[in-house]
Specification:
This protein has 113 residues and is α+β, with helices and mostly antiparallel strands. It has 3 helices and 4 strands. The protein has helices at residues 24-32, 61-66, 83-93; strands at 12-19, 45-51, 69-78, 100-106. Pfam families: DUF3240.
Length: 113
């Protein structure tokens, strides 16, 4: 049995943005219009998740009962060198104290086809 596998590289990283669901459309609009990244940045993956732990603001009654805050997570694979420019462009466009980001290396990727 042979399997093609790309050796781990740091050619890409995964930028993750965590934000309240109310800001999802604003963030996606901002991402799609980033001037430094050409006409069609992405693709992006959008997840619905929950945030829990100390210091989490529980806004709605349901969040207070569950003890978890609803969050939207947007993930975008891109070259590590592009992360600072993207983060700065988002700060300039959508500055908000409850939008958080982090990046992680993509060790391997590919398609199953």
């Amino acid at each position: 049995m042979t399997t093609e596998f790309t050796a781990p590289t740091a050619a890409l990283c995964l930028l993750t943005l965590s934000l309240p669901p109310a800001l999802e459309e604003s963030l996606l609009d901002a991402l799609q219009t980033l001037p430094a990244l050409g006409p069609t940045p992405g693709p992006f993956t959008v997840w619905q998740g929950q945030l829990l732990g100390p210091g989490v603001a529980l806004v709605s009654a349901m969040e207070q009962v569950q003890g978890r805050a609803k969050r939207c997570l947007v993930q975008w694979p891109l070259p590590p060198a592009d992360v600072p420019a993207v983060v700065q462009a988002l700060r300039d466009t959508l500055r908000h104290p409850d939008v958080h980001w982090w990046s992680t290396p993509v060790l391997a990727h590919g398609s199953l086809a």
